[in-house]
Structures are given as structure tokens and as C-alpha cells.
């Protein structure tokens, strides 16, 4: 792995040791990797403060999760140190390519905690070793003088002056950041080598917070906001003056209220709401109040763009147009195209490549493909990638019409004609491997796609094999010219019929071979006087049709048998019989029809790997009459309509291994059979198959438990899983020294543990575990040493939890659920006792398993308190543990509360502890006093620990009563203890015996001493109206609005504090305005006051309504 390059130190800062922040103990550093080599990044996370295992994500860019790309190229590793509680995570990039360059981020999360860090990867080409000329070091220097020769060794020993480096100008990066826009922070951080962006933003925010506080804004906008595309965003500030108007600007332009932008003003708060954010809302926003303003930057984050339709492999010929097409999940998305690791764009592509967008479709078009364009093409989006292979082969010349054999007579004209697919192709004609030269009698022509050789006045010397060879192609078309010689002989008047059958051109005697679909014309010369009668037969059937596909054409001395578009049914023996009065003649021929073979059958995939698949098929049932030379294979992705040729040379075997496939993609294959006639129709498509590699071997295989007949195993999943996932695990075992492995489970198990049963006692056994998926079995994970199948005796022991080693206190009515683990082999006998007696209480339940026992009470009562004993016993060995349970409740009231002494403004109280302490210690008392006139209770002391107290600061002339509440850990008692006698506070000084007088009647009818006042309030802000009243007995207060009793309306809160009456109205609206009345009533009469309440709208809202 290349050594990571450390970022340069920012000028203006002192070098300090790096301090970890958040959860990371070690962060990955940015590196410059060499193309083709491996690079590894390591990060460490401290989990000592976490309650659960952290989750690590490796991301590229903003959203591309690299966890789904794990495989040969990207590998991930995780380890944990129990002593230091530190997790170590590693990411390895195998054989770095140019596409791996860019920004990366690792993100760790655990419940409510999260931390992340970033690093960069740049890729450089492999350095070439340069061989310097060693003599250059010894060249004569200008300082050696006249005695120096061509080679000056002494010059190497001279002390040379070091070039002093010019001091770099110091730059304060923080001043640059404070003056820059938030959108430029990342660029500036990269320029000055700052890698901790999160720490930089925190520091910058702290520095900006030291600026002078604004006189206009109580709370400004944050430096930046991030919102997902399509979501709503609110920007809010608080101003000092609730009536001041504000303006909102976007990139310097004022924003007008609309359905898109909603501007609100409530009190001191000003809010701008942006609905359904899109990319056009990614801008700078400002809130302006008079001469002051505050600004922010809004970043609209697009969701990851995924590829919904993948690239298809393309097979084409030189000069053809090639189109690669994908579909993405979002319109307007950006797609990056690459070829063999090199990016393709409009600047570098020129006229060779064209890039086209049509909605969610993106196309890469190659005009006139060449051999250099062959390779792997990639398409990248923010949330996915796809690749396809382009294969370019030389253009094949297609024969549209081949040359036909000719049979001509002397002095007739012979014309050989053929037609090929390319008009530009030229060629040469050969006769018996000698090039034909044009002459007055022999003419060669080329018109469009048609090539002709015309021979006038045919002579016997013109007979032979003629061949047309196209220039530049390994192709030749041949035909034969048969010269029909007519012999004129003197014959008598009566001449028996004669069939002149020329079989010299036949491969086998009297056998004619015809390619299916071609035309057969067989001319037979017949002589005889008088003219004989001709009869053609196929087997026992007479062929006499003069028209149709199979017909007979008769002329004076020539009879022709014609088959248009030969078919397989036309194959068979044919005979011709000629008769006249002078005799009869007969000849037999055999017509053999050859054709392309039938398609191969039963194409199926037998096995798959990471990037390959093995395919087999059966030969075609009919070879077309010509032996099959081999096969051609094609494949395509499921859902695509484009087939890719896998081989260009004929493949002879019926088994083939297709390579260069993409793991996790469904494919189909088909096969063509090839014989000497041509290529068959394609076979039926194979069933879809997916190249998938088996997983790696399971890790950390250990023995968890052993008994006399069983063995429990545990393991971890393989480090490399791949696209096929894991279907389950197979567990196998065998005796030590044997190689006969026995499968323990019939079906794969999904859990990472298994207990192998029915093992022989005392035998030494080996175990192994294999992961299974659709690709097959993984390499096995094997136990290093043999395991002896024998249960180990283990003494019983109770592992009492720490919180149960002290008294367990629960409240009455709560649930009690105690889980106590224990150990011991064989399984011990568990018994529960309460106060030394076996537990028989039906309200207390117990449940015991192999490893723990549970004691549970659904609803605790005080009778459940006591000492519980757990006994775990194996034969004569046992272990005991005591658990003390205390069920507590609120205490009763104190007893005997009375006033023991009164002096001055003080009174002394005493009482006795409550009879019922709630089954726990009484922690204190709460004392309250009440004036007998008002009878309102006020707390004097809380948590008083003694059963006595002194109450001070009593009012002279008043008579007081007291009450006391007892308190424990459950709270105050429900009932207080009330003093039996009262404390009268008399005036101190000389004793004065007042004269007897008649007690004055203090009763009076209600009278308002302070009236209600008319008020005008702002809607949305709480308001209150107050008045004061007196009267004895205490009058009843009734509040009314517009002569309607308000009652228990939760919008209104009515208070009475020593005769001061207050009506609080929560957030009044326009409907709460009106006339409010307060009426006081007692037995002696009533009185009332009223006021008018006006509710007005805030000034900004009123102006908006007028507009």
C-alpha cells in the first residue's frame, strides 16, 4: 500500500498533536495510490461509551454506499478488541483503477450517536524506471579550472552552496473562510489541506459567534441549511422590534409571497417557508431589516440516482453504428461514461462519440465502430453503475446469389453471375485456378452488387471449373461449365431410343446433390427415330406435370427434369424411361437433398462461478445430410433483446464455458449448429441463470458445549459473501483418522450455531462447516483439533447478578421478575425456599431452564417480603444464594399531633411516628399550618426528620391549626395527622382586661374595591383582566362574557388570590372580543363590574389583508 500523503500544515497555526473527536480514535487519511496496486484504509472507533455495537458505512461521494459493492475489487474487514473496547474497520481497494479516484466518507452510528470523517483518493500512473547516465555525475564543472579534464572527480567532493528557499508568505486561512461564501468552504479546505471539515465548521461558527451582537436581530440565520429535494424548508429569524418590516432576498432578488414561498410574521419571529424544494432553490438567501441583514446558504440534496435499465453487451462489425443505452430513476440526472477506466465527455470525445439524453434515457453513440473501440464501457450515477462489453469484428461478406453450374452447347453463350452484399467489393475470375483475362469473346462486368462473367461462342476448351474470388475476403464462389457436344451421325430411319446421360460431374455415380431451397434442373439428351416417349418416375409414382414446383420440360432432343426450391421430401431415386417402336431405354439417378442442420436441443447451464457459466447441449437430431462441423454460441441478459456472439470460430464440443460475465445478472444462452451447408436456426433459450461465486469459508469455528452424545458448535459468517448471499450452512463430522464425512443436518441451517446429536460416547471427532448458496458449497471451516465426546463434570454455581446481592426494594403493585443464571453439568436440581421453607405461595411463580431460573410476581404485595433462598444441587454438591426482597408502601399518618407550647410568635409541636411505616424507614415529615379565618394550608417544613418542630413567624392575633404528613421512599402518607389543639398568638406586654363589649358583626355583602378596566390586546398574545373584591362570608365569583357564563372553558383561567380576581385569556382571537363581567355573590347580596375587551390584528397581518 502506498504511504498516505499528509496534508500540508495551514499557515498561521501552530503544530499540535492531532486530537480525536467524537467516536473515532483513528481516522483514514487521504492517499495518492498507484494504478494497478492495492490500497487499504483503517479506522478505529471507541465503543466504551456506547450501549450497542456501532454500525459502520463506507461511502463514496455523498450517497454511494460501497457496502453493496463488496467483492474482488472492494473488500471490508472488521475486528474487536475486548480489552480496549475498540472496533477496527478496514476497507481495501484491490488493483486501483482511475474510476476509484474521488472523495470518500466513513460514517459510524450507534443509537443516538453519530460521527463521520472524510478522505480523498487520487490515482497516478505507474512510474517508469529511468536509467540515468552515471557519467553525467562526473562531467567537468566550470569551477575546476584549467587542470580539469573531461571527467572531474574532484568536482563531486566540493562543497556546494545550498539554494535558500524563499520564505512563503503566511496566510490566515480563518480570515479567508470568514469572508468566503459557505459554498466555497470545501474548495478552500482542500486548497489549504484541511481534512476535518466538521471541526473546521465548528471552529468557524465559534469565531463568527464572537462578533458584535446585532441591535436588530435577536437570532440570525444559520450559516447553511441542507434539505432533500421535494421537501419543505423553513428559514426563521427573531427581530428586536415586533412591528419592524423585513425583506427576504434570493441571490439578491426580493422574494414575493406565493404558493412556493410563504412569508409569515408572528410577534418577533419572521419565517420564510420554501415548499417542494428543487435544484433551483439551491441559492444564497438574505433577510434584510433596514440597513442590517443576515444571510445563509441553502443546499438542495438530490436523492441517489439509480440505474433502472442496465447496459447490454454489443457485438457488431467494423463501420457499424453502436448505441449503449441506460435508464435512470430521475430525469435530468448526470451520467458519467467511461471506457476501460478513461472518462468519455464532450470535450475529449470529438466526433467519435455522441451523448444523448431523452427524459430518463441516456445514450452513448459510437459512429462507425472500429477495432480500437472494442472494450468495457461503464456508466456511473450517484447511486449505481453498469457495464457492458463491446466486441467489434471485421465485416463479413454475405453472398446473396451464388454461381450456378452451366451446361451449354457449342456456339451458345455462357453467363456466370453472382451477387454479394457490398457494392464496393471487387474481385477476380479464375478458370481452373488461372485468372481469366477479358477479350472480345470473354467479358467481365461489375454493376452494383452483381458480378458477371460472359463467354460468347462457347468452345469445348471453355469447359472447366470457374471461380470468383472477392478482393480482401477469404471467400470463393465456384461453378462448373459443362460443354454439351452434339454428334451428328447418319442413322437409319428406324433408330431405337437412347438416353445420353453424362454422369462425369456427379460425385457418386448417378447421384445428384442439391442444397435445400436451390433449384435443380437436369437436362437429358434423348435420341431415337421416331421421337421416343419420355416417362419420369419417383419410385412407383409417375412425374408428368408440365408446370409447378416439380415438373418435366420436353423439347425435340432434350428433356429436362426441374425442381424449384428443393425440399427434403424431394430426396429419393428417380428413373427416366424412353420408348419408341424401335425399342426402349432406361436410366436411374438418385437425388440427394442436403440442408442446414436442425437446432441443437436441451441447452442448459450446469454450473456457475463468479464471472463464468458452464453450458451443455445435445447435438441436433438431424444434421441436414452433411456432418456437423461445430457450434456457435450466443448469450444475452434477461429482459434485453440484444444477443452477443461468444465465438467466431466453430466450436466442436457440446460443452462450453462462457466467461466475462457480470456476477448477479441473469443471462440466457442459445446455440447454433454449423455444417458444410450453413448455420441452423437458433436453439430454444436456456433457462435463465446467474453467475454467482460461492462464499468464502465460515470464520471463527469453535466448540461451545460437549455432552455424552452431543457437541454444540458456533461460527461467524464468511468475510466474503458476494451477490449470491448465504442460503444456509451444512455441518459435517467424522472420526479422527477417517476421511468419511457424515452430514449432520438434512437441510441447511440459517443460524450461526448448531448442536450435533447422536454422537458415539468417548470418540474423538472432527467437525467442519460449509456455507451454501446457489453457486454451491464454500471451502470448509474445520476444527483444528479433534473433540472428545464426553460430558465434563462441572460443579454447580450460582452467578447472582450484582443488583441482587443487596436488598431488592419494590413498590406494592409492581412486577417482580428475577433472572438468575447458574452453571453445572449435568443439569442441576433447582429449589426455591422462603425463610427456610420450600416456596409454596401460588402468587409467586418460578421457571427453570438449563442455564437460568426465573422468579416472578405479577403484582407484589407486602406479604411477599422476606428472604428467598435459591439452591442448585448436583448429587451431593450444591450452591446456595439468598435474595432479600422488601415490598414497600406509603406510610400511615403520624399519631398524637399536638401543640406543646406557644410563646411570642412561635409554637412548639410534637407527635409520634405512624403506626404503619409502609414496611420501610420513615425518612421525614412535612408540616403545614392554617389560619382558622382563611383555613388555607401552607407548608412550613419539608423532610423534617424529628417527631417535633418549632413553627415561627406566626401572626399576632391569629389562631393556627397544624397538620403533619409522614414520608418514606414511596412518598407522603395519604392522610395527615391534625393537631388536636390550636395555637393562639396573643399580644405581648402588660396584661389588659378589655371591657366586655358586644362582638361586631364582620359579615358584609360583596363589594368591588378595584373595577375592571377596558383593554385593547393583540391577537395571539396572552391577555389578563383583573379586579378586587371583599365580602364575608367569602363570595362566589362568576365570570361572564356578553352576559354568558364562561364556566369551565379551558381557554380561560380564573384565579382568586386573597380577593384579587384575575381572568387569563390564552392567545385571544378576534372572536374573544366583547364585554366581560365579573359578579361576586354571597348570602348577603351581590355586586358586579364590567369592561370592554378589544382584540386587534398585528400590523403586518393587517397590511397583508389590505393588499
Automatic annotation (TrEMBL):
Pfam families this protein is in?
Answer: fn3 (PF00041), I-set (PF07679), THB (PF18362)
| Occurrences of domain Fibronectin type-III (ranges) | 599-695, 697-792, 893-991
Summarizing the function annotation, the protein's role is: Thick filament-associated protein located in the crossbridge region of vertebrate striated muscle a bands. In vitro it binds MHC, F-actin and native thin filaments, and modifies the activity of actin-activated myosin ATPase. It may modulate muscle contraction or may play a more structural role.
Q: Which family does it belong to?
A: Belongs to the immunoglobulin superfamily. MyBP family.
SUPFAM superfamilies, per database record: Fibronectin type III, Immunoglobulin
Q: Which InterPro entries does the record match to this protein? A: FN3_dom, FN3_sf, Ig-like_dom, Ig-like_dom_sf, Ig-like_fold, Ig_I-set, Ig_sub, Ig_sub2
* Disordered: region residues: 1-23
Q: Which GO molecular function terms does the record list?
A: actin binding
The scientific name of the source species is Betta splendens
Protein name in the entry: Myosin-binding protein C, fast-type
* Keywords from the named record: Actin-binding, Cell adhesion, Immunoglobulin domain, Muscle protein, Phosphoprotein, Repeat, Thick filament
Residue intervals of the Ig-like domain: 17-122, 214-306, 395-467, 497-590, 796-884, 1006-1094
Question: A GO BP term, please?
Answer: sarcomere organization
Got a GO cellular component term for this one? M band
Amino acid at each position: 500500500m502506498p504511504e498516505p500523503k499528509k496534508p500540508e500544515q495551514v499557515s498561521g497555526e501552530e503544530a499540535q498533536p492531532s486530537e480525536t473527536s467524537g467516536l473515532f480514535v483513528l481516522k483514514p487519511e487521504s492517499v495518492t495510490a498507484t494504478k494497478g496496486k492495492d490500497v487499504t484504509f483503517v479506522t478505529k472507533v471507541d465503543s466504551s461509551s456506547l450501549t450497542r455495537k456501532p454500525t459502520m458505512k463506507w461511502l463514496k461521494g455523498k450517497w454511494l454506499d460501497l457496502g453493496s459493492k463488496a467483492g474482488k475489487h472492494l473488500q471490508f474487514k472488521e475486528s474487536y478488541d475486548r480489552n480496549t473496547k475498540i472496533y477496527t474497520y478496514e476497507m481495501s481497494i484491490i488493483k486501483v483503477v482511475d474510476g476509484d479516484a474521488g472523495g470518500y466518507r466513513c460514517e459510524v452510528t450507534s443509537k443516538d450517536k453519530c460521527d463521520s470523517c472524510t478522505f480523498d483518493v487520487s490515482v497516478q500512473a505507474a512510474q517508469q524506471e529511468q536509467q540515468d547516465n552515471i557519467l553525467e555525475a562526473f562531467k567537468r564543472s566550470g569551477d575546476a579550472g584549467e587542470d580539469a579534464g573531461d571527467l572531474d572527480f574532484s568536482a563531486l567532493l566540493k562543497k556546494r552552496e545550498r539554494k535558500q528557499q524563499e520564505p512563503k508568505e503566511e496566510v490566515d486561512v480563518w480570515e479567508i473562510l470568514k469572508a468566503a461564501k459557505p459554498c466555497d468552504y470545501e474548495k478552500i479546505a482542500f486548497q489549504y489541506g484541511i481534512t476535518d471539515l466538521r471541526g473546521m465548521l465548528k471552529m468557524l461558527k465559534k469565531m463568527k459567534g464572537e462578533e458584535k451582537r446585532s441591535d436588530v436581530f435577536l437570532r440570525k440565520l444559520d450559516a447553511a441549511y441542507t434539505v432533500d429535494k421535494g421537501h419543505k424548508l423553513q428559514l426563521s429569524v427573531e427581530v428586536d422590534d415586533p412591528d419592524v418590516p423585513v425583506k427576504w432576498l434570493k441571490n439578491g432578488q426580493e422574494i414575493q409571497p406565493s404558493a412556493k414561498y410563504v412569508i409569515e410574521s408572528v410577534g418577533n419571529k419572521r419565517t420564510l417557508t420554501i415548499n417542494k424544494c428543487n435544484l433551483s432553490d439551491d441559492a444564497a438567501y438574505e433577510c434584510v431589516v433596514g440597513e442590517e441583514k443576515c444571510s445563509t446558504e441553502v443546499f438542495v440534496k438530490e436523492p441517489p440516482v439509480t440505474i433502472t435499465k442496465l447496459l447490454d453487451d454489443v457485438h457488431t462489425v467494423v463501420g457499424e453504428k453502436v448505441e449503449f443505452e441506460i435508464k435512470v430513476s430521475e430525469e435530468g440526472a448526470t451520467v458519467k461514461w467511461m471506457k476501460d477506466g478513461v472518462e468519455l465527455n464532450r470535450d475529449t470525445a470529438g466526433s467519435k462519440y455522441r451523448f444523448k439524453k431523452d427524459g430518463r434515457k441516456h445514450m452513448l453513440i459510437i459512429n462507425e465502430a472500429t477495432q480500437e473501440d472494442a472494450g468495457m464501457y461503464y456508466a456511473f450515477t450517484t447511486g449505481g453503475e453498469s457495464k457492458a462489453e463491446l466486441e467489434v469484428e471485421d465485416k463479413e461478406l454475405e453472398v446473396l446469389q451464388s454461381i450456378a453450374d452451366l451446361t451449354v452447347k457449342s456456339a451458345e453463350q455462357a453467363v456466370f453471375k453472382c451477387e454479394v452484399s457490398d457494392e464496393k467489393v471487387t474481385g477476380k475470375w479464375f478458370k481452373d485456378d488461372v485468372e481469366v483475362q477479358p477479350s472480345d469473346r470473354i467479358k467481365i462486368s461489375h454493376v452494383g452488387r452483381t458480378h458477371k462473367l460472359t463467354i460468347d461462342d462457347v468452345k469445348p476448351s471453355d469447359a472447366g471449373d470457374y471461380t470468383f474470388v472477392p478482393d480482401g475476403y477469404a471467400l470463393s464462389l465456384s461453378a462448373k461449365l459443362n460443354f454439351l457436344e452434339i454428334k451428328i451421325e447418319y442413322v437409319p430411319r428406324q433408330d431405337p431410343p437412347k438416353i445420353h446421360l453424362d454422369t462425369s460431374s456427379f460425385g457418386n455415380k448417378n447421384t445428384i446433390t442439391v442444397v435445400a431451397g436451390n433449384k435443380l434442373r437436369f437436362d437429358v439428351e434423348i435420341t431415337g427415330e421416331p421421337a421416343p416417349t419420355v416417362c419420369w418416375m419417383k419410385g412407383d409414382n409417375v412425374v408428368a406435370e408440365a408446370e409447378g414446383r416439380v415438373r418435366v420440360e420436353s423439347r425435340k432432343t432434350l428433356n429436362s427434369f426441374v425442381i424449384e426450391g428443393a425440399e427434403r421430401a424431394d430426396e429419393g431415386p428417380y428413373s427416366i424411361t424412353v420408348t419408341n417402336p424401335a425399342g426402349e431405354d432406361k436410366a436411374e439417378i438418385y437425388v440427394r437433398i442436403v440442408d442446414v442442420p436442425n437446432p441443437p436441443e436441451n441447452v442448459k447451464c450446469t454450473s456457475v462461478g463468479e464471472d463464468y457459466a458452464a453450458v451443455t447441449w445435445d447435438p441436433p437430431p438431424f444434421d441436414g445430410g452433411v456432418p456437423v462441423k461445430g457450434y456457435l454460441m450466443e448469450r444475452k441478459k434477461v429482459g434485453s433483446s440484444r444477443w452477443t456472439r461468444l465465438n467466431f470460430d466453430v466450436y466442436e464440443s457440446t460443452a462450453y464455458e462462457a466467461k466475462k460475465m457480470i456476477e448477479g445478472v441473469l443471462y440466457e444462452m442459445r446455440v447454433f449448429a454449423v455444417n458444410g451447408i450453413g448455420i441452423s436456426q437458433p436453439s430454444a433459450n436456456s433457462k435463465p441463470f446467474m453467475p454467482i461465486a460461492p462464499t468464502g469459508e465460515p470464520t471463527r469455528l469453535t466448540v461451545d458445549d460437549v455432552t455424552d452424545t452431543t457437541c454444540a458448535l458456533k461460527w461467524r459468517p464468511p468475510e466474503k459473501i458476494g451477490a449470491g448471499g448465504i442460503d444456509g450452512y451444512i455441518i459435517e463430522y467424522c472420526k479422527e483418522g477417517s476421511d468419511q464425512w457424515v452430514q449432520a443436518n438434512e437441510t441447511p441451517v440459517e443460524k450461526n450455531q448448531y448442536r450435533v446429536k447422536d454422537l458415539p460416547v468417548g470418540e474423538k471427532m472432527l467437525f467442519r462447516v460449509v456455507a451454501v448458496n446457489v453457486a454451491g458449497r464454500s471451502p470448509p471451516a474445520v476444527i483444528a483439533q479433534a473433540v472428545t465426546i464426553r460430558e465434563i463434570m462441572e460443579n454447580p454455581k450460582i452467578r447472582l447478578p450484582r443488583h441482587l446481592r443487596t436488598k431488592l426494594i419494590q413498590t406494592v403493585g409492581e412486577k417482580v421478575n428475577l433472572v438468575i443464571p447458574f452453571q453445572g453439568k449435568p443439569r442441576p436440581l433447582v429449589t426455591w425456599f422462603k425463610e427456610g421453607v420450600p416456596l409454596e405461595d401460588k402468587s409467586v411463580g418460578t421457571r427453570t431452564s438449563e442455564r437460568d431460573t426465573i422468579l416472578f410476581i405479577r403484582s407484589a404485595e407486602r406479604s411477599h417480603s422476606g428472604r428467598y433462598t435459591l439452591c442448585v444441587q448436583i448429587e451431593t454438591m450444591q450452591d446456595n444464594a439468598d435474595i432479600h426482597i422488601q415490598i414497600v408502601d406509603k406510610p400511615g399518618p403520624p399519631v398524637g399531633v399536638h401543640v406543646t407550647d406557644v410563646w411570642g410568635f412561635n409554637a412548639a409541636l410534637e407527635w409520634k411516628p405512624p403506626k404503619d411505616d409502609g414496611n420501610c424507614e420513615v425518612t421525614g415529615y412535612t408540616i403545614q399550618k392554617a389560619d382558622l379565618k382563611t383555613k388555607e394550608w401552607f407548608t412550613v417544613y419539608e423532610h423534617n426528620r424529628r417527631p417535633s418542630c418549632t413553627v415561627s413567624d406566626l401572626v399576632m392575633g391569629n389562631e393556627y391549626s397544624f397538620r403533619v404528613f409522614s414520608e418514606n421512599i414511596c412518598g407522603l402518607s395519604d392522610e395527615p395527622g391534625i393537631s388536636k389543639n390550636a395555637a393562639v398568638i396573643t399580644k405581648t406586654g402588660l396584661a389588659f382586661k378589655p371591657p366586655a363589649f358586644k362582638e361586631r358583626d364582620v359579615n358584609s355583602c360583596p363589594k368591588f374595591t378595584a373595577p375592571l378596566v377596558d383593554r385593547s390586546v393583540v391577537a395571539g398574545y396572552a391577555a389578563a383582566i383583573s379586579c378586587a373584591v371583599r365580602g364575608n362570608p367569602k363570595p362566589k365569583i362568576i365570570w361572564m362574557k356578553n352576559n354568558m357564563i364562561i364556566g369551565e372553558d379551558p381557554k380561560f383561567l380564573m384565579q382568586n388570590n386573597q380577593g384579587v380576581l384575575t381572568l387569563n385569556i390564552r392567545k385571544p382571537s378576534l372572536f374573544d372580543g366583547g364585554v366581560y363581567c365579573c359578579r361576586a355573590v354571597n348570602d348577603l347580596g351581590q355586586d358586579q363590574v364590567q369592561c370592554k375587551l378589544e382584540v386587534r390584528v398585528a400590523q403586518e397581518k393587517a397590511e397583508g389583508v389590505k393588499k
